[in-house]
Design goal:
CATH class of the largest domain in chain B: Alpha Beta
Helix content of chain B: 25-40%
Number of helices of chain A: 4
Structural class of chain A: alpha+beta
Number of domains of chain B: 3
Number of strands of chain A: 9
CATH topology of the largest domain in chain B: Rossmann fold
Largest interface: A-B, 21 and 17 residues
Strand content of chain A: 35-45%
Oligomer: heterodimer
Number of helices of chain B: 23
CATH class of the largest domain in chain A: Alpha Beta
Strand content of chain B: 15-25%
Bound molecules: thiamine diphosphate
Number of strands of chain B: 20
CATH superfamily of the largest domain in chain A: ACT domain
Helix content of chain A: 25-40%
Shape of chain A: elongated
Order of helices and strands of chain A: EHEEHEEHEEHEE
Radius of gyration of chain B: 24 Å
Structural class of chain B: alpha/beta
Largest sheet of chain B: 6 strands, parallel
Shape of chain B: globular
Strand order of the largest sheet of chain B: 3-2-4-5-7-6
């Protein structure tokens, strides 16, 4: 069944780990008028390959095009869509929140415990929290932190693997 | 292993790829390569603007089926190639562009990449979206592998331009060089064989069709699939329409040929394709100029789409039976599957209908009236030049008149910028085509506006002795734009008058070429025959009525059904 509504889709690509490849990928997205919501990249094994996890918004036809256009790039060795029902996704966020007094500090630590996040830095009037999870969880946590005042956020974007036997490998 | 410089390695690698000719312009950052070229046996053709080096390489490639090579220095030389590279990219033409670049490293000067050095331009960044792939060389030792990959990528799968950017210090560097025999690119494995199951489905659909139609695109020409196309068409008695890029895929005087579809397609082609119950589309990207509005294009037709680029399938048009494969292999497989299942069709009701339609429409294609109307000029031209002559076109009305009234009888004999619509393409492309096919008569069907964009190549044509003939359909306006202003902008003419200068006869003569102005059809015929006999660069200036329109036409944003006439 094809869906004409816009949705977020996760695409994983194994690419050559060399200079210019991220440019080629992002250039293709811009040229074809596709929107990248997030992109995360890191080297894998063997070390001359890297894995990109890209989230895009669009209908089914758009994602199909995105995947085909990615596959067409010479430096993209493999590409596949990860379907949400059998994929684990994680994102990491670092959040700097105001915590000028003990009251706010203990409130924040309470939330941190509930969300299985952790405090990784404390200074006189702020602390940095690290949280990992799916994007909804991180969104919810940031929403709560807003009442204290958020100074800065850094998010990695989604990275993902499909569950079980299925895997995206080269060779 | 042999010790040589990067420049020597480049030239040696080009020789191993059987490159015979390079179109280019020299400059500081590419001098080491040119120095080696001098003793290489490879012919260098000095053009007068780098854009034309790329167009000439493109024309060479389209006429011969072999990759064309162009070369330029860094900075402005490289950026001047851009229009030519984009033109080749849009029409999937295999060219190799070689550019000089400033040094990668420099011990004691800022003449190096990233320092805004003299004539530094980020040609890799600039050409990434308009090449199939591009490389900036990092060492002399990788030259052979990279050149081999570049030719492999440019000519296989869906062909396209590849650019090699050569920093000057890499050209100068000496290294132990080894030339590989094989190419191995793990991210590039084009599929060429059709899936047997899809082929069976396609054959069944075609045999069960009442009104089958074949649409041939540029891919049929690129893969040299003409005999296979004709066999399938004749087996099914199915009419063949082409896209503009597919013109020449079937001889246009064949009973099954109906001409081009599209904005300036023939009436019979545009109406027959919409009538098809099964459409076999081969090597086409269903471009907007071909299909008209998508919601009226073959909505109830079962579409079989053969393309070597899987990204083309489903991009613009929904497809029932996709076949990702080389056009030649796919058509051969379909033909075999058809033969296994049925007898070759005899006269069908559909074919009789096609014949009727053809006759009905054919007459109105015959224009009367004034002597030098472009339609008559082009029909006359077709009559007097040999069947295997190569015609290139410029862009605008001249191009669309050529599409409608100048029949192509052989593949690779009609060469035009379809995808990008680049004015100025036709003349340098003609020079490239003539370089590849010196024994053929080569003519550029031109508009005066377009010819002005690359006319300086008259020098190249004369000096390098590459004689081509330019027929200027001279309306002294940017005719196609004026036509749109007449039809869609209430005759508000803006920026379309060219004021009748220069005098093209004297311009030609200034370059040492032959120039003739003709006043009648008779004189035109004489001038063309003279050009063929003398075999010298000739410009034939044909004054045509300034307000002549190209019809039929499907207005932009309309269905192929809604053709308008004069
Ligand atoms: C490089 C470039 N610039 C502008 C255009 C837009 N354009 C399309 S057709 C045309 C007029 C072409 O005039 P001419 O070559 O005299 O041909 P005619 O239409 O009169 O036959 C123009 C300006 C183009 N296609 N290419």
């Amino acid at each position: 069944m094809t869906v004409n509504e816009e949705q977020t889709h996760i695409i994983a690509a194994i690419v050559e780990h060399k200079p210019g490849v991220l440019y080629r990928v992002s250039n293709m997205f811009r040229r074809r008028n596709f929107n990248i919501e997030s992109i995360s990249v890191g080297p894998i094994e063997p070390r001359d390959l890297a894995r990109m996890t890209i989230t895009v918004r669009g209908d089914d036809r758009t994602v199909e095009q995105v995947i085909k256009q990615l596959a067409k790039l010479i430096d993209v060795v493999k590409v596949s869509q990860l379907h949400s029902n059998n994929t684990v996704t994680r994102e990491l966020a670092l959040i700097k929140v105001y915590s000028p007094d003990t009251r706010s500090r203990s409130d924040i630590i309470n939330y941190v415990n509930i969300f299985r996040a952790s405090v990784i830095d404390v200074s006189t009037d702020s602390m940095i929290i690290e949280i990992t999870g799916d994007s909804d969880k991180i969104d919810a946590f940031i929403e709560l932190m807003k009442s204290f005042g958020v100074k800065e956020i850094a998010r990695t974007g989604i990275t993902a693997l499909s569950r079980g036997a299925k895997s995206l490998k080269v060779g | 292993m042999v010790e040589m410089s990067g420049a020597e390695a480049i030239v040696e690698a080009l020789k191993r790829e059987k490159v015979e000719v390079i179109f280019g312009i020299i400059g500081g950052a590419i001098m080491p390569v040119y120095d080696v070229l001098l003793d290489s046996g490879i012919r260098h053709i000095l053009v007068r603007h780098e854009q034309c080096a790329a167009h000439a390489a493109d024309g060479y490639a389209r006429a011969s089926g072999k990759p064309g090579v162009c070369m330029a220095t860094s900075g402005p030389g490289a950026t001047n190639l851009v229009t030519g590279i984009t033109t080749a990219y849009m029409d999937s033409s295999p060219i190799i562009a070689i550019t000089g670049q400033v040094n990668r490293r420099s011990a004691n000067t800022a003449y190096m990449i990233g320092r805004d050095a003299f004539q530094e331009a980020d040609i890799i960044g600039i050409t990434t979206p308009i090449t199939k792939y591009n490389y900036q060389l990092t060492s002399a030792s990788e030259v052979p592998r990279v050149v081999k990959e570049a030719f492999y990528i440019a000519t296989t799968g869906r062909p396209g331009p590849v650019l090699l950017d050569l920093p000057k210090d890499v050209q100068a560097e000496r290294a132990e060089i080894e030339f590989p025999e094989k190419v191995e690119i793990r991210g590039y494995k084009p599929v060429t064989d059709p899936h047997p199951l899809q082929v069976k489905k396609a054959a069944d659909a075609l045999l069960n069709a009442e009104r089958p139609v074949i649409l041939a695109g540029g891919g049929v020409i690129l893969s040299n699939a003409f005999p296979e196309l004709l066999e399938v068409a004749e087996f099914l008695m199915a009419p063949v329409v082409t896209t503009f890029m597919g013109k020449g895929a079937i001889p246009e005087n064949h009973p099954l040929s109906l001409g081009c579809i599209g904005m300036h397609g023939s009436r019979v082609a545009n109406s027959v394709i919409l009538d098809a119950d099964v459409l076999l589309a081969v090597g086409t990207r269903f471009g907007d100029r071909s299909t008209g509005t998508l919601d009226t294009f073959c909505r109830d037709t079962r579409i079989i789409h053969v393309d070597i680029d899987s990204a083309e399938i489903g991009k613009n048009v929904d497809v029932d039976i996709p076949i990702v494969a080389d056009a030649k292999k796919a058509l051969k497989a379909i033909r075999e599957a058809l033969t296994l299942r049925a007898e070759r069709k005899k006269e069908t009701a559909w074919f009789r209908r096609i014949k009727e339609l053809k006759e009905q429409y054919e007459d109105t294609l015959e224009p009367g009236g004034e002597d030098l109307r472009p339609t008559r000029v082009l029909k006359e031209l077709r009559k007097i030049i040999p069947e295997d002559s190569i015609a290139t076109t410029e862009v605008g009305q001249n191009q669309m008149w050529a599409s409608l009234y100048f029949k192509a009888y052989k593949p690779r004999t009609f060469i035009s910028s379809g995808g990008l619509g680049t004015m100025g393409f036709g003349f340098p492309a003609a020079i490239g085509a003539k370089t590849a096919c010196p024994d053929k008569f080569v003519v550029d069907i031109a508009g005066d506006g377009s010819f002005r964009m690359t006319e300086q190549e008259l020098a190249t044509s004369v000096v390098e002795d590459i004689p081509v003939t330019v027929v200027i359909l001279n309306n002294s306006t940017l005719g196609m734009v004026a036509q749109w202003q007449r039809l869609f902008f209430d005759k508000r003419y803006v920026a379309v008058h060219l004021s009748g200068i220069p005098d093209f006869v004297r311009l030609a003569e200034a370059y040492g070429a032959q120039g003739v102005r003709v006043g009648s059809l008779e004189e035109f015929v004489k001038a063309v025959k003279e050009a063929m006999r003398l075999d010298v660069t000739t410009v034939i200036d044909v004054p045509i009525p300034p307000e002549e329109d190209v019809f039929p036409m499907v207005p932009p944003g309309k269905s192929l059904k809604e053709m308008i006439e004069g």
